[in-house]
Write a structure and sequence with these properties.
It is a single chain. This protein is 71% helix and 0% strand. With 190 residues, the chain is mostly helical. It has two domains: 4-86, Orthogonal Bundle (Rna Polymerase Sigma Factor, Chain: A), CATH 1.10.1740.10; 109-189, Arc Repressor Mutant, subunit A, CATH 1.10.10.10.
């Protein structure tokens, strides 16, 4: 992609080629985030559409404090939160309190064959486990570990501190490890 400042200037001039370039670069990632949070492909399409409409509407006031991609993620994440709150699926996104109980099942992950991790069944189990995460932890996990954004980018997108990103990511990984331990325990005993 061309220089960020040049892209913003071209967007302010309503250059459709630049908008298309930005869309091609970011739309799929935003869609994946929205589907993962909302579990609804139609709503995820709406989130992507709203994010890019917001970019078109507000490009003249875009200050460049964040990258266009980070800004789009933030708009999309906020839209997802509003949709989830409207469906009453989220009680309190900002809640940082959580029980960190000891795991119920211990698995020696080194004894699991490599092909067990790469199977379609394991992938489906991983997706089910991710879906069980609280939305705030799921968002951090998806942005950091799936989309491979930095801690700072994730914090900026979600509007939380770097430390909160690290805490939520740690809790998400522990929760996934706990949930997947039962599944992979069968591979160890086999």
């Amino acid at each position: 992609m061309q220089d960020e400042r040049e892209m913003i200037d071209a967007l302010k001039q309503r250059d459709p080629a630049v908008l298309s370039q930005i869309f091609e670069h970011h739309a799929d990632r935003i869609y994946r985030l929205a589907v993962s949070l909302l579990h609804d492909e139609q709503q995820a399409d709406g989130v992507v559409q709203n994010a890019f409409l917001a970019l078109i509407r507000h490009v003249d006031s875009f200050e460049g404090r964040a990258s266009v991609g980070t800004w789009l993620y933030r708009v999309a994440y906020n839209d997802c939160l509003h949709r989830m709150q409207a469906q009453q699926r989220v009680a309190d996104i900002a809640d940082e309190e959580a029980d960190e109980a000891m795991p119920a099942c211990f698995v020696d992950w080194q004894n699991i064959p490599e092909d067990a991790f790469e199977s379609a069944e394991a992938s489906a189990e991983m997706n089910r486990a991710i879906d069980t995460l609280k939305p705030d932890m799921r968002a951090v996990f998806l942005l950091r570990d799936v989309e491979q954004l930095s801690t700072a980018e994730t914090a900026q997108i979600l509007g939380i501190s770097n430390e909160a990103v690290k805490v939520r990511l740690h809790r998400a990984r522990l929760a996934l490890r706990e949930r997947l331990a039962v599944y992979f325990d069968e591979w160890v005993r086999a």
